[in-house]
Amino acid sequence: MTLKEAIVQRHSVRKYTDKKIDEATAAELQKAIDECNRHSGLNIQLILNEPEAFGSGMAKYGSFENCSNYIAIVGKKGDDEKCGYYGEKIVLRAQQLGLNTCWVALTVNKSKISYKANRGEKLLIVIALGYGQTPGHTRPTKSTEELSKIVKGEMPGWFSEAMEAVKLAPTAINQQKFLFVLDGNEVTAKTLFGFYAKIDLGIAKYHFEIGAGDAHFVWKSVED
């Protein structure tokens, strides 16, 4: 399964079976996590067979069932965009490995999450993990025109494909509070106001890069 295929097949899943994640699959996922930690400086942790975090009323309110595996993304203040970018790398790798996932911000008992944090670090967000009772389903999305802007000229094909991948990026409460602006070969990705907007932007930027393929573009920071 390619990353583009994983983007299309990935849906948020909250209800899981009792099937355990086998050692080989867990090892491959851990390999992806280790790589992301090396590149990002984050402290992402894989927690298996731990039902307490999703055993509370909050998790039931969020419609979670049988969730005993998750990924804890731990980092420092200001790491939100990196959290989204590298967390989604792991999510898509999990999809390639036959697992289902769901980004979880609120409907989890944070006091029960079995993670470790170094000085100056905190829990940024959690990703539920396991074998879904169903593969999930598609959700409504904003149009490319609503999520992007072309400064001059026509929209190139590679940018259109990149935005198709962006439209499939998971976001907090499906808000899609971001805007991608193309000016020549420079792309600026901006957050708009919304819950967990910077995490969402990191997720969307990773999707954009996958959708853009071999296109030669450069990221331009909002401050430039």
Give the tags.
224 residues; alpha/beta; NADH Oxidase; 2 domains; four-stranded antiparallel beta sheet; four-stranded mixed beta sheet; 35% helix; globular
Q: What would you note in describing this structure?
A:
With 224 residues, the protein is an alpha/beta fold. It has two domains: 3-130, 3-Layer(aba) Sandwich (NADH Oxidase); 144-219, putative nitroreductase (tm1586), domain 2 (NADH Oxidase, 3-Layer(aba) Sandwich), CATH 3.40.109.30. It has helices spanning 3-9, 23-40, 57-61, 80-96, 144-147, 157-167, 197-212, and strands at residues 43-47, 69-76, 100-104, 121-130, 148-150, 178-183, 186-191, 218-219. The strands form two sheets. A four-stranded antiparallel beta sheet has the order 1-2-4-3. Helix 7 (197-212) links the parallel strand 7 and strand 8 (218-219). Helix 4 (80-96) crosses helix 7 (197-212) and helix 6 (157-167) crosses helix 7 (197-212). The chain is globular and about 55 Å long. 40% of the residues are buried.
